[in-house]
Design goal:
Layout lengths: L3 H9 L14 E6 L5 H17 L3 E6 L10 H11 L6 E3 L19 H12 L15 E3 L2 E9 L2 E5 L4 H5 L13 H27 L4 E6 L10 H21 L3 E5 L6 E3 L5 H7 L8 E5 L8 E7 L6 E7 L2
Helix pairs in contact: 3-4, 6-7
């Protein structure tokens, strides 16, 4: 998969002469998510994994959550985990709302979302501090939140941040008969949001200390979507404000990759007066670039993100699945 022994050792973080994190190492990582939706996509998942495995440039892969709508069973989690285990390169996975926050719905069995979140962590994060994939890579995992990880590689610092659609689990668990947000639900949201903010700050601190050329953030939730209201603002304001403050202080390029909205988009959301006003942020964050990825039942592409030596740090290619 990787070209030469040196590239393989670098991908695994094994013994080689120390390289400053600021050094530009040309490699690529793959990003996809919001799949598999439905039996056809599920049956086709192994072939898609094989395509990423066969790409000679890829040294790391990220799945941005939502492993299919309509199934919250442990057996389904295990099936997807088994597929993920076929990745040759390290896989950074961050959960989506389909995996747990939406599991209260009658169509998926009226399960308690917090119970499902515990199951997701048990299945997909069996060894905190280690990615998935056959050539797993050591990462820094946040205590109590094994899905929140970060790693510096090839002159950039990469972090997965656990934020999900369905208002980051502030959507009412109506499938369980509730008509308002439950205390346990709000407590989990508050704790995870606080952890996310701390994780983001630690990521930028690591990037600064290691002289990284850029920061890459990976999350499932689209925090800049449509014409949202007050619940949406409450769901994401702490994380967005933290990203804004840290990105401004950092000063170098920051890239955010998210799923959730299922349509590819590249923009600079915090250079927009709409989102600055919505989240109560003073001053544009011009060094933040966001990529929203395709997803859903018709999704047929992944992103090849190449780390380059030029000042723009990364180049992003939309690659069709065969």
């Amino acid at each position: 998969m990787l070209i030469g022994l040196t590239g393989a050792l670098l991908a695994l973080g094994l013994s080689l002469p120390a390289q400053p994190a600021s050094a530009a190492t040309v490699y690529a990582f793959g990003v996809f998510g919001d799949t598999p939706y439905g039996s056809t996509a599920l049956n086709g998942l192994p072939a898609r994994i094989n395509q990423l495995n066969a790409d000679p440039q890829i040294q790391l892969v990220s799945h941005l959550g939502d492993i299919g709508s309509g199934n919250c069973a442990d057996s389904y989690y295990a099936k997807i985990k088994s597929a993920f285990d076929k990745f040759v390169d390290p896989l950074i996975y961050t959960p989506g709302d389909n995996e747990w926050a939406d599991c209260h719905k009658a169509s998926v069995g009226k399960a308690n979302p917090l119970n499902r979140l515990t199951a997701v962590r048990k299945v997909f994060f069996p060894t905190p501090g280690t990615t998935l994939g056959q050539n797993a890579m050591s990462v820094t995992a946040q205590s109590g939140y094994p899905e929140n990880v970060r790693v510096s590689k090839g002159g950039i610092t990469i972090a997965a941040v656990h934020g999900v659609g369905s208002y980051n689990d502030l959507a009412i668990w109506s499938g369980l008969g509730y008509t308002s947000v439950q205390p346990s639900q709000k407590a989990e949201f508050d704790a995870r949001t606080s952890a996310d903010a701390s994780h983001i700050k630690a990521t930028f601190a690591q990037a600064t200390a290691s002289h990284s050329r850029a920061v890459v953030l990976l999350t499932q939730a689209d925090m800049f979507w449509g014409s949202p209201g007050s619940t949406y603002r409450e769901a994401f304001k702490v994380v967005v404000r933290t990203i804004a403050a840290e990105a401004k202080a950092y000063g170098k390029p920051v890239f955010l990759f998210n799923g959730d909205s299922h349509v590819f988009l590249k923009d600079n959301p915090l250079a927009s007066s709409k989102w600055l006003s919505f989240y109560g942020i003073t001053g544009a964050v011009n060094n933040l670039t966001r990529y929203a990825i395709e997803g859903g039942s018709s999704m047929n592409e992944w992103l090849r993100v190449k780390v380059v030596t030029e000042s723009n740090v990364i180049s992003v290619e939309r690659v069709a699945f065969k």
